[in-house]
Design goal:
Structural class: alpha/beta
Strand content: 15-25%
Distance between the termini: 63 Å
Shape: elongated
Number of strands: 16
Bound molecules: ligand C2E, magnesium ion
Length: 457
């Protein structure tokens, strides 16, 4: 029974409890001998996929093989433990230098990641390793376990199939992430999200033809956060799904309000950005339909923006998803166009209506003729596809003039205005879209659009 309590049933390796005991012992020994213990924390990279696609019996055999290979990499006195699932740990009880631990990690990477044969099928199992060394003798076993775990996470983040040696800054970063994740979980419930809106201005008549909804997080301690500060975390945790539904509902509702307040011809459009996770979600079409229905918004006035790089993988599933969205009657735009290096043939497969040319192509054209040539090529590419083009990041009148000359249909950027809160945007629309406002002379902008109005948001 004691053996059972301290060992893993599948592999027979020591379990977490036994490894922790041995680690504690190794830490105590540092008082009496030179050298220090190191802990390697291992997590297989693609084990879930193997288990899901080939079944648990194959999964178990992979784990047994990995256990045997790990044991083959070590010397007597070292401990390999299985922590459950696809997690293993290695204790090197007494090292003269941390380089020995990294050399062991390199050996493990090479050995574990060599192809293995199961039922005549060749499999490659990736592994990520975090290493923590007890160099100052100040920490206890749990600190070392936690540090190795944090370093392992870092190795995964750096691209998997590699090792990372713990550094204190990783801990600070991991804590900040944990804290932000906890805050993010509450943010929806506490109504801390808001949408800002940035107008899209048509070059043909200098009118506002639509607005893009941009997400803001009113963080209780850190103030207003831009999507760059939390979107990746929301994506990783899946929280982007409820947040994305909130964005869709809120934007559609606002679009309906502005359509009623400021009828124009053609009517104002509302653009909403979609994330990778949302795009993969089979329920996306229902979510969009529900948001349109709740707001009584005709589908044609909603534009869904999808970043170009999201279209580069998983094409057939994504093409099907886009086709279903198109069937609803909404418009589709490729966002950040030009940054994803898609080929023309590839882009033709997607049922899109608009291209939004990434601001990196617009900015700097005033200084560089090469930059200008690239912009010209990107716009030409969009026109070849016969799609409407919107240039993002118009900050100067030169930007506006140049993209218009090159044949872009519309522009968006700080030159017109930064993203505005709902109230400021309503005031701006009232200013330029109300029935009494005269249209500007051709080639001119509305005075209230030509200056950057409102506080930056
Ligand atoms: P995006 O869709 O390409 O949006 C344009 C971004 O450029 C916005 O940044 C906007 O504030 C900024 N911008 C507009 N004009 C200018 C300009 O003249 N100069 C410069 N330098 N920047 C300009 P923001 O609001 O920080 O959003 C960043 C990205 O976050 C967006 O890029 C979009 O991909 C994503 N995002 C924003 N809201 C949402 C959302 O509700 N859901 C999802 N999934 N993603 C969102
Ligand atoms: Mg966008
Ligand atoms: Mg963009």
């Amino acid at each position: 029974m004691e053996h059972q309590a301290l060992h893993d049933a599948l592999t027979g390796l020591p379990n977490r409890i036994l490894l922790r005991n041995r680690l504690e012992h190794a830490i105590q020994m540092t008082r009496r001998q030179a050298g220090f213990p190191a802990l390697l924390f291992l997590d297989l990279d693609n084990f879930k996929a193997i288990n899901d696609s080939l079944g648990h019996a194959v999964g178990d055999r992979v784990l047994l093989e990995v256990a045997a290979r790990l044991q083959g990499c070590l010397r007597p006195g070292d401990t390999v433990a299985r922590f459950g699932g696809d997690e293993f740990a290695v204790l090197l009880p007494c090292l003269p230098a941390s380089e020995v631990a990294t050399a062991v990690a390199e050996r493990i990477l090479e050995t574990v990641q060599a192809p293995l044969l199961i039922d005549g099928r060749e499999l490659v199992v990736g592994v990520s390793i975090g290493i923590a060394c007890l160099c100052q003798g100040a920490e206890g076993p749990d600190d070392l376990l936690r540090n190795a775990d944090v370093a392992m996470y870092h190795a995964k983040e750096q691209g998997k199939g590699r090792y990372a040696l713990f550094e204190p800054r990783m801990h600070t970063a991991a804590l900040a992430r944990l804290e932000l994740t906890a805050d993010l979980r509450q943010a929806l419930e506490c109504e801390q999200f808001a949408l800002c809106y940035q107008p899209v201005v048509s070059f043909a008549d200098s009118r506002i033809t639509g607005v893009e909804a941009l997400l803001r997080w009113n963080h209780p301690r850190r103030g207003i956060l831009l999507p760059g500060a939390f979107l990746a975390l929301a994506e990783e945790t899946g929280l982007i799904l409820p947040i994305g539904r909130w964005v869709l509902r809120t934007a559609c509702r606002q679009a309906r309000i502005w359509l009623d307040q400021f009828p124009s011809d053609p009517p104002l459009t509302m653009s909403v950005n979609l994330s990778a996770r949302q795009l993969q979600q089979p329920s996306l079409v229902d979510d969009v339909a529900a948001a349109l229905e709740a707001a009584q918004l005709p589908p044609a006035y909603l534009i869904l923006e999808i970043a170009e790089h999201l279209l580069l993988d998983g094409t057939s599933a994504i093409v099907a998803q886009l086709a279903r969205l198109k069937q609803l009657g909404v418009q589709l735009a490729i966002d950040d166009f030009g940054t994803g290096y898609s080929s023309l043939g590839y882009l033709r497969r997607f049922p899109v209506d608009l291209l939004k040319i990434d601001r990196s192509f617009v900015q700097g054209i005033e200084h560089s003729s090469e930059q200008m040539a690239v912009l010209e090529a990107v716009i030409a590419l969009g026109k070849t596809l016969n799609l409407s083009t919107i240039a993002e990041g118009i900050e100067l009148s030169q930007h506006r003039d140049r993209v218009r000359q090159l044949g872009c249909d519309a522009g968006q950027g700080y030159y017109y205005t930064r993203p505005l809160g709902e109230r400021d945007m309503t005031a701006l629309l009232a200013d330029v879209l109300s029935a009494v406002a005269p249209a500007p002379a051709p080639g001119r902008d509305y005075p209230s659009l030509a200056r950057s109005s409102g506080a930056p948001q």
